[in-house]
Write a structure and sequence with these properties.
By secondary structure, this protein is of the alpha+beta class. The protein folds into three domains: 137 residues, CBS-domain, CATH 3.10.580; 125 residues, CBS-domain (Roll); 99 residues, 2-Layer Sandwich (Double Stranded RNA Binding Domain). The chain is built from 14 helices and 19 strands. Strands 7-15-14-13 form a four-stranded mixed beta sheet. A four-stranded mixed beta sheet has the order 16-17-18-19. Strands 3-12-11 form a three-stranded antiparallel beta sheet. Helix 5 packs across helix 12, helix 6 packs across helix 11 and helix 6 packs across helix 12. The termini are far apart.
Length: 389
């Protein structure tokens, strides 16, 4: 939810575009126009209170003329150790990608996937912020788009999902969600059945707080608070069956939890997870007539050039796979990891290529992310080529 009446906007869009023009939706027809914003000089404490009041996960930062100057998010805040609550938001914001209102929702979805942002500011010609379009907006409209009734939940879900237990600490929950680049995670009870989900925006308020000591106070993570159990923050999860059509999955997500749905068996045990990322990449595949799906997790927002280059390498590999006649690629999953070693960032990528000939697993490590990606692509290519001999 990015503005008051956000879900109502989605419902109205469904009603208007239930007919012939449903596949030509433009960003301007789905975006939220009543946007809640902050100014660069606003204090962090003020911004967090405003986001909590409006149930926001991200917030645009604009200047006095209404021009976009940056973006602020809860998950970005959670990656920082200690931040004074008197910090001006202008020092914490990041530069988001932008989109125009006359672009299609498929173009918006593509930008969201390539950049990792969950919402895009919509700009007019002079750079003034006119609205926000989010992943939730696109998923809300997806149920009415051509082809979503033919795709099943089992075709879209990520198998073997990482889950939390009710007894896990919220520190563990934060670690899992930040590692996967998601804002929600499924929670199971002691019998391994779905108990619900936990949202990063809910636990953010427990991790970051204003200390009463001192005149101004600090906003910082406290160890004891990080040990609070996940069970205290469980909310309802959208639970679907493997055979449910994607349009029903989208409707369940909008109705219950727009960030994620859990695919469960008859006993209520999780078989897979469908995130907003999963839905968007399938929508783009349907729009482009492409069968192979790609999933990239763990990649933090950062240098736009690096992220775009990485996706270009993956795209070229996909196109090459499409030309092979002895094997058919079905999905490619990559998980990016990084850690500091000796003051330098060491990258690792785990890749899984699913084909009609079986699964292929390749891993690589390097100080440079793009070199690591090259090694992954080369390794997968060698495995595939070897089948032709």
């Amino acid at each position: 939810m990015y503005a008051a009446g956000h879900i109502n906007n989605i419902v109205e869009a469904h009603t208007i575009y239930e007919g012939e023009k449903k596949d030509s939706l433009k960003v301007s027809e789905l975006m939220s126009r009543d946007v809640v914003t902050s100014a660069p000089e606003d204090l962090l404490s003020t911004v967090i209170a405003r986001m909590s009041a409006h149930s926001l996960h991200e917030m645009p930062v604009v200047d006095r003329q209404g021009r976009l100057v940056g973006y602020f998010s809860f998950d970005g805040l959670l990656r920082k150790k200690h931040v004074p609550i008197t910090t001006k938001i202008g020092k914490l914001m990041v530069a988001p990608p932008r989109i125009e209102g006359d672009r299609s929702i498929f173009e918006a979805a593509q930008v969201m996937l390539e950049t990792g942002f969950r919402a895009l500011p919509v700009m007019d010609d002079d750079g003034t912020l006119t609205g926000i379009i989010s992943r939730t907006d696109v998923i809300g409209a997806a149920a009415k788009l051509h082809g979503t009734g033919d795709v099943k939940a089992g075709d879209v879900m990520s198998e073997e999902p990482e889950v939390l237990s009710e007894r896990d600490s919220i520190g563990r929950a934060v670690e899992l969600m930040l590692g996967l680049g998601e804002v929600a995670a499924p929670v199971v009870d002691r019998h391994g059945r779905i108990a619900g989900s936990v949202l990063i925006e809910d636990i953010s308020r427990a991790v970051w707080f204003k200390r009463e000591s001192g005149a101004e106070g600090d906003l910082e993570g406290e160890k004891d608070r990080m040990e609070v159990e996940v069970g205290a923050f469980i909310s309802e999860a959208a639970v679907v069956k493997r055979e449910d059509p994607l349009k029903d999955v989208c409707e369940a997500m909008i109705r219950v939890n727009p960030y994620m749905s859990v695919v469960a068996d008859r006993a209520g045990r999780p078989l897979g997870v469908i995130t907003q990322y999963d839905v968007l990449k399938r929508l783009i595949g349907l729009e482009q007539g492409r069968e192979m799906s790609v999933d990239v997790t763990g990649l933090e927002r950062g240098d736009p050039f690096t992220r775009t280059t990485l996706y270009s390498k993956i795209e070229r590999f996909m196109e090459k796979m499409g030309r092979f006649n002895w094997i058919r690629a079905e999905s490619l999953s990559l998980h990016v990891e990084n850690q500091m070693k000796g003051g330098r960032r060491r990258w690792g990528i785990r890749a899984r290529l699913r084909t009609n000939k079986g699964l292929f697993h390749v891993t690589a490590e390097d100080w440079d992310l793009l070199s690591c990606a090259d090694e992954i692509v080369e390794g997968l290519n060698k495995r595939v080529i070897s089948l032709k001999r």
